[in-house]
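Exercise 4. Each item below gives a protein and its sequence. For each, produce the structure-token representation.

Item: Ferredoxin reductase (Streptomyces griseochromogenes).
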Amino acid sequence: MSADTDVEALRRQGRIVVVGASLAGLRAAETLREKGFTGSLTMIGDEPYEPYDRPPLSKQALLGRARPEDTALPRRRDIDAEWRLGVAAEGLDRDARQVRLANGDTVPYDRLLITTGTRARPWFHPEEAALDGVFVLRTRDDCARLHRKLTGGVSRVLVIGAGFTGSEVASVCRELGLEVTVVERGPAPLVGALGGVIGAVADRLQRKKGVDLRCGISVTALEGDDVGRLRRAHLSDGSAVDVEVAIVSLGAMRNTEWLAGSGVAAGARGIACDAGCRAFDVNGIVTDDIYAAGDVARSPHPLFDYQFLALEHWGNAVEQAEIAAHNMICSSPERRPHLWLPMFWSSQFGVNIKSVGVPSLGDQLVVTQGTLAEDRFVAVYGYRGRVIAAAAFDGAKWMGFYEQQIAAGAPFPPEYGTVDRRTGTLQAVDPGFPDPHLPTHGPTVTLTGHSPSERRVEFVPSHA
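Answer:
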């Protein structure tokens, strides 16, 4: 049987399983049907809900301007799928081509797409994490519980971590009129994502809005009262803060544990896959029946020295899912690479923040529009003499232009005759990223090339 015949048989009567009832999972399923897949389609999700939109959970829904249950993702078309919701995938048998579920069921596949995404990193001490008043924010249920708490008469809130989510939550708390202390172990908010130069602007914004911002320290313990309610947080500088609510915002963990022992190259940094979204096995050989997309995937990008990028971006999840779906049901010559340019946005403290490219790769920075002092600007990042990224505070209209510059490998520092800049000569400075080995909040784009600490392949001699 030819490869083309195999592909056609797969399109007509194959079995595709999507593990992860997420944005990426839904968009992949829709794309499969749009491209003529008529076989069986199974969607597996550990939450009891069909795919919903997560960005509003730390913004409109947390403020009460939208209900968490109203965040369901709009459908582009009917996907005619079997939904297995509220039950997590627990294992993968590649030889039998089966996904094992937590309830003991097995689901067979011809092609498998993994879109399990990430989960919130929990507080490190389980007993403290279980105190009434300690929250993480990742799911619909998390948002509903936290909104009820914030609007239920509390007055003092602690946010642990000043990455994008933590900063957005702090902004919401201030809009709700709550006293907020933000504790960030790095030198400034957003420092892992945008660097210290831009982090200093975020620092100033938070303080101007009344946030009690404490950087360069960490929370060492959460203390409860006699009935298990949060009452105090102890900090590494020896001080303590009386609080009723603590929101733990220490970044995300990729949901790959269920793949342990499967032979898929998956770990804490995600699932390694090629530019066509095909997963690698632990020997570095690409599979042809297992694909990955969204936050859980990491793949090489030619614009960034073929570094493996793990992206926690809404747009990336959509684009990568569509590429994965296309490649799953076509022949090799028709496959396409996933080359989406990273983009991210955030709304906090009355400012719209947007970035394009990979700021954390930058070794130089210049401000090309506006000024840092007025909290309205565009900053461009350079890497080895070319434009690698841009970030804007209330300057989103420029991001399309810089997207083109990054894609074209434009030289750095930039010289644009038509740019409206009020900063005089473009003076390149160090963007101020912390040492990557120091414990601070990582960027929304993570470079995940080989690490010497990773387990090496163990070669077993063949007895054939």
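Check: The chain is about 20% helix and 30% strand.
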